[in-house]
Amino acid sequence: MKKPNLIYLFIIVFFLGSCSVNQKTADLQTEFANGAVVTAHPLASEVGVEILKKGGNAVDAAIAVKFALAVVYPNAGNLGGGGFMVYRAKDGQISSLDFREKAPSKAFKDMYLDQNGNPITDLSLYGQLAAGVPGSVGGMDEAFKKYGSLPWKDLLQPAIDLASKGFALTKQQAGEFNRYQERFKKFNPNGAAIIRDAEWKEGDNFVQSELAETLKRIAELGRDGFYKGKTAEFIVAEMKRGNGIISLKDLEDYQAAWRDPIVGMYKNHKIISMPPPSSGGVALMALLQSVENYPLKKWGFQSDSTVRAMVEAERRVYADRATHLGDPDFYRVPVANLTDAKFNQERMSKVSLEKATPSDDVKASKFPGYESEQTTHYSIVDKEGNAVSLTTTINGSYGSLVWVDGAGFLLNNEMDDFSVKPGSPNMYGLLGGKANSVEPGKRMLSAMTPTIVEEDGKLKMVVGTPGGSTIITSVFQTILNVLEFDMTAQESVSAARFHHQWKPDVVDAEEGAIDEKTRQSLSEDGYKINERSPIGRVENIVILKNGKLQTGADHRGDDRAVGY
Ligand code: DON
Question: Which domains does the chain have, with CATH numbers?
Answer without folding.
Answer: 39-166+207-564 (3.60.20.40)
